[in-house]
Amino acid sequence: MEPVHGPGSAGSHGVSPRRPSPAVYRRRRRLAAAVLALLIVALLVAGVVMVIGLFSANDGDPAAAGAVATTAAPPAAPSAADGASAEPPPSASEPEPTAADEASEPECDPAEIAVEARTDAPAYPPGQEPVLSLVVRNESETACAVNVGTSQMEFVVADPADRIFSSTDCQQAPQDLERVLEPGAEEVATLEWARTRTTPGCASVEPVPEGGTFVLTTRLGGLTSGTTSFMLDG
Predict the structure, then answer these.
(1) 135, 190 in Cβ contact below 8 A?
(2) Which of 9, 10, 150, 229 lies at 20 to 30 Å from 160 by C-alpha?
């Protein structure tokens, strides 16, 4: 019995489906390209509308719009893991030492401070005024503070028989002055003596010293120098 082929069955005499022609393919590609172009245009239009809306929301204030664009979190503080130092940056420059800084040094031991009397010449012709010097020297091995103010110093001139002059007899407003002396350093105070005679309390006295040999002694606080001799020509 021969097999029966019902409707829709493919037999040896069935017709094969037809494939689209090349012209149809070309039309389909052109249609797809046109649709893609329309989508791109639509996306661009949407982006422009969003940008306009952003500026409109800020009422056209460029500062507000810029704040949105430029705001950033502050940089994180450096941590030990970053290898950064926690010390603050050094200042551009360091302050100069003050009198308070100098006073912070320990007071000098009087036993290690030398006081010396000097003159600028061994002899002086008539009319030339001697320049007297009081020298303070630190003979210790460490820096220390010493009061070298006029409140502590005295210049005394004498001849073999009389006290002739003292810088404290007519002194006004004596002052303290702290100085830090490095080991071996000297501080020098000078006084130009006008060849006058003085008495305690600055009372008037005569006569002016005549020529001869005189000795200078200096004192700083409780420390007194040895004597230095010089000559005055009459």
Answers:
(1) no
(2) 150
